[in-house]
Fold this sequence. Notes:
With 148 residues, this protein is α+β, with helices and mostly antiparallel strands.
Amino acid sequence: MGLELLQASTADALTITGISRRAFHSDVEVGSKEKVGPPGYMSVPYYTKMAKSNHLFKLIDNGLIIGGAVLFLDNEKLNIGRIFIGPENHRKGYGIFLMQKIEALYPAVKEFTLDTPIWNTRTNSFYLKIGYTEVRRDNEFIYYAKQQ
């Protein structure tokens, strides 16, 4: 079985919400001033809606959900709305696997885009490490892209 990235169902929303909450709250260790996250990060209805519209994916390790992703495909561009892995599984290579699987799932995509808060030292170094390039920034976020 091993590691898999699969489309999530509405039945996965509760589990994914719990993982999302813990993952984003762990950002206080890498620059966040408080336990917060992106809109809907701890909302079962949000993740249920994302699952119903086929935007929600789950990262599974030996049958257990350990992370997730919200992806938005627009022709030849894929916006990675968010990725997250439970904090107990950080720094074990799961993030690299997740991003490689996302990119492999969409061979016709020419550009992958995402953004992350300026203060997040963990995600900013991670995206640069895996080949994403900063395209712009504002007062809150750094925007990245990767050509395929």
